[in-house]
Amino acid sequence: MAQSRHAIPFPEAAKLTYAWRRNRPPGSFNGARFDRVAFENILSQPGCEGIRIYMGLHDAGDLGYEDAKSFWTFVMVGTDADGNDMTVIPGDGNPDSISGGEDTYGDTEQMPLPCPPWCGDPGPLNTPP
Predict the structure, then answer these.
(1) Digits of tens for pLDDT over the chain (129 positions)?
(2) H helix count then E strand count, the chain
(3) Strand, coil or helix: what is 17?
(4) Which ranges of the chain would DSSP assign to H, the alpha helix?
(5) For residue 114, which of 37, 33, 35, 56 has the smallest C-alpha distance?
(6) What is the pTM of this model?
(7) Which of 51, 46, 33 has the alpha carbon at shortest distance from 108?
(8) 3-state DSSP call for residue 95?
């Protein structure tokens, strides 16, 4: 595995996730899994140099989340060489001011499989405290 400024020793990763599991906010989850295609969709954009992950929160009535135990989610967007979000039109922070079709903006991904309930086999990163 190539080393990067983001790499940490596995024991540190286990310590960080353990601290989260012991102190996580009510209604949140331990982690979430994205399929490879979600990363490929973002990283295949011309000029994409990274991925930024934002926290998101669904409304209780959002399609597919009516019976959810958690409304938390992650929203991923590509970033350019300067670290800017790859959205075609700069946003003012108000989602109601966004107009245009889906192809107007850069690729964004969402809908991860949250853990719990979709966790891998028990291990140092996901075992309940």
Answers:
(1) 455 788 899 999 999 999 999 998 888 888 899 999 999 999 999 999 999 999 888 777 766 666 666 678 889 999 999 999 988 655 565 655 555 555 555 778 777 888 888 888 999 998 877
(2) 2, 5
(3) helix
(4) 10-23, 36-43
(5) 33
(6) 0.74
(7) 51
(8) helix
List phi, psi (to 5°) of 39: -70, -40
Q: Which amino acid is at 100?
A: G
**Bridging pattern class, strands 108-109 and 113-115:** unpaired
Asked whether 72 and 54 are in contact (CB, 8 A), the reply is no
Contact at 8 Å (CB) between 44 and 127? Answer: no
* Domain assignments of the chain as residue spans, ordered by start: 29-89+102-120
- The DSSP output letter for 24 is P
Amino acid at the residue 24: R
108: helix, strand or coil: strand
Question: Six-digit token pair at 45?
Answer: 């954009």
Q: What's the N-to-C CA distance of the chain in angstroms?
A: 29
- The residue type of 35 is D
Q: Give the tokens for residue 80.
A: 């350019």
The tally of CA atoms less than 13 A away on the side-chain side of residue 57 is: 2
